């Protein structure tokens, strides 16, 4: 397995710069996710690593060797495509064998590798079928198998789960996690689904509008989002944002909402820009319905998810936020409630969207 | 998935130096289009310009020489009653056939746009004649038009009428060729319209029926707007195609009687390969080219304007 | 339009329409039926009047005469050689060029493609005099290559195949690139097999076009032994009125029309699809 280094790579389509001066190091054996909304450049970046897009500036190194001028086949990586991209007229066996034949792998070696990969992926009984005769999940496995047999320096996944139905997606996710734990292969996984990124990756690269917003472990991304974009994009329901006035409370910031109620955060007050307009960011699970809660409001919508209930609450000053209640919550739309905020998990954001967190 | 024992990679890529394709422009990629381009340049582009050059030569077939004559051939063409007549004949033929192709093609398509077996058979019948060669089609229609022994003459006599001599009467020769042509290749416009009709979502008609739209109303409010593009394609295609009238005229009437049914291409053929006035024929073919290009362009712009309005 | 077939209250109208189209179709077939009947009549009787067509005697002699006297077989063979040559040539050139224009980038490619498309607007008649001159200069008239080669310059197939290659998802090529396949291998092993429906469409189209082509073979092939069937049958009909062989001519026409008709019956689905496809592109 090999590390992958991106050294201030840039990409232009015509005059539009889609990736500018991006640097990133992916360690050997790491499972890394590129997470972001569509159009953020994550797929382009992956395709640049694969050699399917030209690089307009910077360097890409795989296992220390510079590859950005090599054709895709010479880079020693394998890719699993969103729509699988299986060769429709070839059997599963031939799909898997094609790449190995092209580099002159001996026949017996090809057969051995395919047999092994098919066993791992439980597709041995499908080897003589054609892709058209397979279900979506089976095609997915074949696509993974085609990568597996090549024993590549790195695996590149381009939204591989987005074409599966919900149940299959969850199952495949678990299988991918297991596969990675066993192979310990360097893997890049592009997705717009935060759950996939959170559950699979050892590190997540959150991208937005052609640049990297944050690189970190899943819990870093979730617990200490670097920017408002990351905070909003990761986590469901999205983090609540409310404009606040901040006061210094013994070195830590206290945030006063529009209705006058106060959230005591653990964010150091001296780190905050003076006189800036700030907003507090709180996740729904940090806002609970409690009789002694400080913030009064009225429930407009109650979304019952079974294990928990999301309450959309309008506050006195007209702003709204989403709070979490238990699954057996008796709260009805129209009810007046009082909310208690767990200030220790609250974040503050400045006008530019930069985040300020509690000390670790 | 069970345990993984995929053998340690023996650096697969090192087995043989890979020669895989890469993205981006490569000169070697031009090799894919080169063979066709060779034919294209040699047998279409070169003849096109050579034809223009030839149209400005006056050839002498006795000593096989030719000399540059500028636009003399063109000047002569515009004063050649036979040529001018052939231009009018061709235009008249286009005016007769194109509306017929559109109207009959659309009517057949509307009637046969169904999924039952009868409709499929009928479609096959109407399209089937298109696969016959012009030679066979003209034999068939000679047997229809023959003054004495023809089928139409027989039918007219049966009804107590005096049989008409279609192919030898000046006013009937071109219409007779037009009827033959429509019979021959009505299948293409019909199929084009059918393809367009099948693109219209059935829900539109169901919604219209729920809105109390009559069949007539549905046709004008849903069908016609939906197939406008195809209508344009059919009209342009047929104009261009019918301007090239040749075989039917040569084989049914030889351009007669008295030049009444001689189209431009027949004029070119006769000048070029019967009288061997190559320069003169080349000039006529350039004029045909220009007329066709103008007709297609005019139609294209006219319809685009209408769509934009 | 299965949906509108089902709309309640339109059943009777639909039936009336269908019945009228059936009538029209019967009229449509009358000319062919007429020729078919005549082809089974003795020539001597047709000399007097074709009115005898509906009474016996009928005979197969006109057809058996074809086997003995006419050049039809030679012409059929010529047509087969020419049509197969044109078809194979067009398929090879158009597939290569279609892949090139759709997938294999090189500088100036898009400009060249537009120039090729402009070729669609050049009618055969505009270049036929010069083409004839070219093949005259090469002393190639009355050979198969002379009849075949001009057909290979048509841009239609290139256009069709380019559109078809463009419609194939690009990630298939990309997967093949990652699998270390060369440009030609991607074309030959990966994409070409996916274009078989288009090959069938273009192939049948080209075959029928070449088989029925009249103008160029008429000009290029002047020796009867090089006639295609289309030119050959035409050559026999120019003076048929005086000749003894009206029924014989009809039989020749039927016989000559048979091969394409069989092709049509077998490949009707593809032919229809080809026509529909040409409309959409």
From TrEMBL, chain B:
InterPro entries per the UniProt record, alphabetical: ABC_transporter_permease, MetI-like, MetI-like_sf
Protein name: ABC transporter permease
Keyword Transmembrane helix: yes
Originating organism: Pleomorphomonas carboxyditropha
Bilayer topology term: Multi-pass membrane protein
Pfam families from the UniProt entry: BPD_transp_1 (PF00528)
GO cellular component terms, A-Z: plasma membrane
Family from the record: Belongs to the binding-protein-dependent transport system permease family.
Automatic annotation (TrEMBL), chain C:
GO biological process, alphabetically ordered: transmembrane transport
Protein name: sn-glycerol-3-phosphate transport system permease protein UgpE
Entry's family note: Belongs to the binding-protein-dependent transport system permease family.
Keyword flag Protease: no
Cell location: Cell inner membrane; Cell membrane
Superkingdom of the organism of origin: Bacteria
Membrane topology: Multi-pass membrane protein
Role played: Part of the ABC transporter complex UgpBAEC involved in sn-glycerol-3-phosphate (G3P) import. Probably responsible for the translocation of the substrate across the membrane.
Organism: Pleomorphomonas carboxyditropha
One CC-aspect GO term: plasma membrane
Subunit details: The complex is composed of two ATP-binding proteins (UgpC), two transmembrane proteins (UgpA and UgpE) and a solute-binding protein (UgpB).
Gene that encodes the chain: ugpE
InterPro entries registered for this protein in UniProt: MetI-like (IPR000515), MetI-like_sf (IPR035906)
Residue ranges constituting the ABC transmembrane type-1 domain according to the UniProt record: 76-267
Keyword Transmembrane helix: yes
Sequence intervals crossing the membrane: 16-37, 75-99, 111-132, 144-165, 186-208, 246-267
Keywords: Cell inner membrane, Cell membrane, Membrane, Transmembrane, Transmembrane helix, Transport
């Amino acid at each position: 397995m090999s590390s992958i280094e991106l050294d201030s790579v840039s990409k232009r389509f015509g005059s539009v710069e889609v990736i500018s001066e991006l640097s990133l190091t992916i360690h050997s054996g790491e499972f890394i996710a590129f997470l972001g909304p569509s159009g953020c450049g994550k797929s382009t970046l992956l395709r640049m690593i694969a050699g399917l897009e030209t690089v307009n500036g910077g360097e890409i190194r795989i296992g220390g060797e510079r590859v950005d001028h090599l054709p895709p086949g010479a880079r020693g990586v394998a890719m699993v495509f969103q729509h699988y991209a299986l060769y429709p007229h070839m059997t599963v066996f031939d799909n898997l064998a094609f790449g190995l034949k092209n580099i002159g792998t001996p026949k017996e070696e090809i057969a051995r590798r395919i047999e092994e990969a098919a066993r791992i992926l439980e597709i041995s009984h499908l080897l003589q079928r054609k892709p058209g005769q397979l279900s979506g999940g089976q095609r997915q496995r074949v696509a993974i198998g085609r990568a597996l047999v090549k024993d590549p320096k790195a695996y590149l996944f381009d939204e591989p789960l987005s074409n599966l139905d919900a149940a299959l997606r969850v199952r495949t996710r678990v299988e991918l996690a297991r596969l990675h734990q066993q192979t310990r292969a360097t893997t890049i996984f592009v997705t717009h689904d935060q759950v996939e990124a959170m559950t699979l990756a050892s590190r997540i690269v959150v991208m937005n509008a052609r640049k990297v917003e944050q690189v970190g472990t899943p819990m870093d991304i979730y617990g200490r989002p670097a920017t408002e974009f990351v905070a909003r994009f990761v986590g469901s329901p999205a983090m609540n944002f409310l404009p606040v006035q901040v006061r210094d409370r013994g070195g830590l910031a206290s945030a006063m909402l529009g209705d006058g109620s106060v959230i005591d955060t653990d964010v150091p007050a001296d780190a905050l820009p003076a006189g800036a307009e700030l907003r507090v960011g709180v996740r729904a699970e940090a806002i609970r319905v409690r009789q002694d809660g400080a913030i009064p409001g009225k429930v407009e919508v109650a979304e019952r998810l079974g294990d928990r209930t999301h309450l959309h609450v309008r506050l006195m000053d007209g702003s709204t936020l989403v709070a979490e209640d238990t699954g057996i919550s008796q709260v009805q739309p129209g009810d007046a409630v009082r909310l208690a905020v767990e200030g220790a998990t609250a974040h503050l954001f400045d006008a530019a969207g930069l985040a300020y967190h509690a000390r670790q | 998935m069970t345990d993984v024992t995929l053998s340690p990679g023996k650096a697969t890529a090192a087995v043989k130096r890979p020669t895989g394709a890469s993205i981006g422009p490569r000169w070697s990629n031009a090799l894919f289009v080169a063979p066709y381009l060779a034919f294209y340049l040699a047998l279409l582009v070169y003849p096109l310009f050579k034809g223009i050059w030839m149209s400005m030569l006056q050839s002498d077939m006795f000593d096989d020489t030719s000399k540059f004559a500028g636009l003399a051939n063109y000047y002569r063409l515009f004063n050649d009653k036979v040529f001018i007549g052939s231009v009018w004949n061709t235009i008249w033929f286009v005016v007769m056939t194109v509306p017929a192709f559109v109207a009959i093609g659309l009517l057949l398509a509307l009637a046969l746009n169904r999924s039952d077996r009868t409709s499929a058979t009928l479609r096959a019948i109407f399209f089937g004649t298109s696969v016959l060669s012009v030679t066979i089609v003209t034999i068939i229609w000679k047997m229809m038009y023959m003054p004495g022994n023809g089928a139409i003459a027989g039918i007219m006599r049966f009804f107590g009428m005096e049989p008409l001599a279609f192919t030898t009467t000046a006013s009937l020769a071109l219409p007779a060729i037009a009827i033959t042509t429509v019979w021959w290749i009505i299948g293409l416009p019909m199929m084009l319209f059918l393809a367009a009709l099948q693109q219209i979502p059935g829900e539109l008609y169901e919604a219209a029926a729920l809105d109390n739209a009559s069949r007539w109303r549905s046709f004008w409010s849903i069908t016609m707007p939906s197939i406008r593009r195809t209508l344009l394609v059919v009209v342009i295609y047929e104009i261009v195609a019918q301007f090239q009238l040749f075989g039917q005229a040569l084989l049914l009437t030889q351009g007669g009687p008295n030049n009444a049914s001689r189209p431009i291409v027949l004029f070119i053929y006769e000048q070029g390969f019967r009288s061997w006035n190559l320069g003169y024929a080349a000039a006529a073919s350039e004029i045909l080219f220009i007329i066709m290009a103008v007709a297609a362009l005019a139609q294209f712009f006219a319809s685009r304007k209408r769509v934009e309005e | 339009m299965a949906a509108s077939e089902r709309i309640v209250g339109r059943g009777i109208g639909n039936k009336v329409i269908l019945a009228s189209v059936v009538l029209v179709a019967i009229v449509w077939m009358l000319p062919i039926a007429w020729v078919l009947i005549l082809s089974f009549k003795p020539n001597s009787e047709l000399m007097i009047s074709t009115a005898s067509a509906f009474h016996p005697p009928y005979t197969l002699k006109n057809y058996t005469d074809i086997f003995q006297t006419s050049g039809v077989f030679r012409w059929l063979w010529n047509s087969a050689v020419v049509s197969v040559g044109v078809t194979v040539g067009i398929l090879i050139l158009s597939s290569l060029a279609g892949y090139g224009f759709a997938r294999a980038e090189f500088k100036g490619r898009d400009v060249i493609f537009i120039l090729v498309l402009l070729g669609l607007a050049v009618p055969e008649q505009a270049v036929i005099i010069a083409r004839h001159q070219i093949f005259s200069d090469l002393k190639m008239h009355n050979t198969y290559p002379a009849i075949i080669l001009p057909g290979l310059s048509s841009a239609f197939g290139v256009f069709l195949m380019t559109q078809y290659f463009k419609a194939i998802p690009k990630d298939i090529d990309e997967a093949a690139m990652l699998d270390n396949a060369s440009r030609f291998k991607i074309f030959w092993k990966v994409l070409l097999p996916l274009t078989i429906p288009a090959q069938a469409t273009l192939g049948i189209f080209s075959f029928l076009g070449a088989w029925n082509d009249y103008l160029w073979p008429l000009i290029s092939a002047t020796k009867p032994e090089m006639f295609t069937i289309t030119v050959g049958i035409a050559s026999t009909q120019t003076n048929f009125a005086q000749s003894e062989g009206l029924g014989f001519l009809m039989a020749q026409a039927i016989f000559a029309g048979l091969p394409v008709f069989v092709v049509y019956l077998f490949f009707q689905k593809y032919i229809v699809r080809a026509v529909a496809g040409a409309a959409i592109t």
